[in-house]
Amino acid sequence: MSGHAAHNPYLKDFKYKDTVRVLDNTLTLSTSEHAMIDRFVRVNQAGETAAVTIYKGQLAVLGRDPALRDLLVHMRDQEVEHLSIMDKLVVDYKVRPTLLLPVAAVGGYVLGMTSAMLGVTSAMTCTEAVETRIGAHYNDQLRELHMLKYEPLGALKQIIAKCRDEELEHLDTAVDHGARRAPLYKLQFEAIKAGCSVAIWLCDRI
Predict the structure, then answer these.
(1) Where are the alpha helices (DSSP H) in the chain?
(2) Residues 107-161: pLDDT tens digits?
(3) Which of 22, 125, 157, 192 has the smallest C-beta neighbourhood within 10 Å, fewest atoms?
(4) pLDDT tens-place string over residues 41-63
């Protein structure tokens, strides 16, 4: 049993090894470890795909306001960067992308556009709800990676932590711009957050 795997009670199959080339280094991962990372990156790629199109949908409705446009473009561009990183990790870690990527893209755009049509505060509620769930999701991944006690995965942890921190910045921005003043704030917030949880569950498995 590998030393780093032995620290994680959730990983039980260490008999077979996969050698995965990542960022110009060779990592030796157990089958279970690779399956865990495969799951993480697959869901993250879908989530960042949806995030990019959410902001595109909001920009289609709210982009005429110069100040608001600059704000949305800034957040969209950060999500584009996150997606580019996840796309590279899919290749590096030999990840099977979810079959639901097109659904994530279209669903994100519809969600962004619909929330924006309800007004600026509702668009910000959408952002707060999405980033609340995604921030928690990234934290869950970081906890699992930390339990591996495997130093070569430090770069992956740094990537996920960076994405998490920027998602939480978007959350704070949304609150600062009136997310909690939306007419149907509580209902909208909980519905979108629950939808994100369902999407994570589906993309993990399909």
Answers:
(1) 3-6, 31-62, 66-92, 101-117, 120-148, 154-176, 185-205
(2) 999 999 999 999 999 999 999 999 999 999 999 999 999 988 788 788 899 999 9
(3) 157
(4) 999 999 999 999 999 999 999 99
DSSP string computed for 3-37? HHHHT-TT----SSEEEEEETTEEEEEEHHHHHHH
Under DSSP, is residue 59 helix (H, G, I), strand (E, B) or coil? helix
* CA neighbor of 137 nearest in space, from 23, 7, 46, 5: 46
- Angle, CA of 148, 162 and 186, to the nearest 5°: 100
Rg (CA), the chain: 18
Local structure of 114: helix, strand or coil:
helix
Return d(Cα 123, Cα 178) in angstroms, integer: 9
Return d(Cα 94, Cα 90) in angstroms, integer: 6
